[in-house]
Amino acid sequence: MLMRTDPFRELDRLTQQAFTTNPGTWTRPTAMPMDAYRDGEQFVVCFDLPGVEPEAIELDVERNVLTVKAERRPRITGEHVEMQVAERPLGVFSRQLFLGDTLDVEHIDAGYEAGVLTLRIPIAERAKPRRISIRNSDDGHRKIDA
User: Fold this and answer.
1) Would you say residue 4 lies in a domain?
2) pLDDT (tens digit, 9 = 90+) per residue, 14-70?
3) N or C terminus of the chain with fewer C-beta within 10 Å?
């Protein structure tokens, strides 16, 4: 038998039960931890989704809002199974990101490995620095940085 010595874990369990209709299943979406950074000409976002099957992940983009929704389902089932400790949250997790106009939402690349969902969003061509040619009345054309 597994013993628990932390008195606050029981309080956490009772609080979780107050928010659930089925034991071990959240009734409200829960945020998922993420990292976001720019890597050269792309924006990278990584979401931690341990224990989530790839087919249980949904990605939607509407206008400039990216929605990530995932469901962690119970893995332990059976007629004679009696759960002793259930600390890993189950159910639906979701997160919304507001993407700037400088990102190309038409070409998002998504990969899932080792419980981490990685999105790579290219920087839009219109947002990249470019040179503009300026006509000079003296010698034709001259290039300057814009």
Assistant:
1) no
2) 565 565 555 554 444 456 899 999 999 999 999 999 989 999 999 999 988 999 999
3) N
In a domain, 21, yes or no: no
pLDDT digits (tens, 9 = 90+) for 97-132: 998 888 999 999 999 999 999 999 998 877 667 778
Domain-embedded: residue 6: no
The domain in which residue 102 lies consists of 29-145
Domain count, the chain: 1
Q: Estimate to the nearest angstrom the gap between the alpha carbon of 13 and the chain centroid.
A: 26
For residue 62, the one-letter residue type is: E
Rounded to whole angstroms, the Cα distance separating 94 from 106 reads 21
Are the C-beta atoms of residues 93 and 32 closer than 8 Å to each other? yes
Do residues 13 and 4 make contact, with C-beta atoms less than 8 angstroms apart?
Answer: no
Least Cα distance to 25 among 85, 77, 92 occurs for 92
Tokens of 75: 């893995």
Report the sign of the C-alpha dihedral through residues 135, 137, 141, 145, in that order. negative
- Our CA angle for 89, 49, 19, nearest 5°, is 25
CATH number, position 42: 2.60.40.790
